[in-house]
Every structure is written in C-alpha cells, then in structure tokens.
Write a structure and sequence with these properties.
Helix content is about 50%, strand content about 15%. It has helices at about 5-20, 40-45, 55-65, 70-85; strands at about 90-95, 100-105. The longest helix has 19 residues, at about 5-20.
Length: about 100
C-alpha cells in the first residue's frame, strides 16, 4: 500500500476514534454526590423493572414519593419527556373503566 494513502487512512481512523469517544450515554443516573433529577429517579425505577407492565403517572408518583417528593403533574411531564426521548414507551391502561395514558419499558 502506498505510504501516503496509509497515512491518510490512519489519520482518518484516529479522528473517528476521537469523535466516537466523546459521545454522551443516554440518561445515566447521577453520580454519587450529585443531585438527582426527577428523570434520573424515574430511569432508576425503570431499570429496576417497575415499568415492565404499564404504569400511570399516579402509580409512578406513588412509587417515587418516598425518595423524591414532588407533585403528580411534574411526574406526568417527566414521563412525557422521557417517552419523547424514547426512554419509555407510551401505552394505555384501563382503570375503573377509564382508559388512561400509561408508560412501559
């Protein structure tokens, strides 16, 4: 192989490795000592299997209330945002004869 072509290919490979090494992972929970956001708390319970069956915003609020006290509407908005980022799936659930929006993973 021509040395000039090899040099160009090596430079290209090095640039690709640098670019790939700087990507941020999706929604990793906060490190020890950092403040956890509501989304971090929801992702943590998701990773624990809470969303294996569809859950409503109220059910999610009840689950996280002890560790992260907040209003139900904040949980609902966080669930919508996580679903738009494809970190939760939107489903439906019937509760007391009413069809409600639910979230699953």
């Amino acid at each position: 192989m021509d040395p000039e072509i090899k040099k160009i290919l090596d430079d290209h490979e090095n640039r690709l490795q640098r670019l790939e090494g700087t990507s941020k992972p999706k929604s990793t929970p906060a490190k020890l000592g950092e403040k956890k956001t509501l989304a971090d708390v929801i992702i943590t319970v998701r990773n624990g299997g809470f969303f294996s069956s569809p859950k409503t915003a109220e059910e999610t609020h009840d689950k996280i209330q002890a560790g992260y006290p907040c209003e139900v509407n904040r949980v609902a908005v966080a669930l919508i945002r996580l679903s738009s980022r494809k970190e939760l799936r939107i489903a439906s659930k019937t509760v007391n004869g009413k069809k409600l929006k639910a979230y699953a993973w």
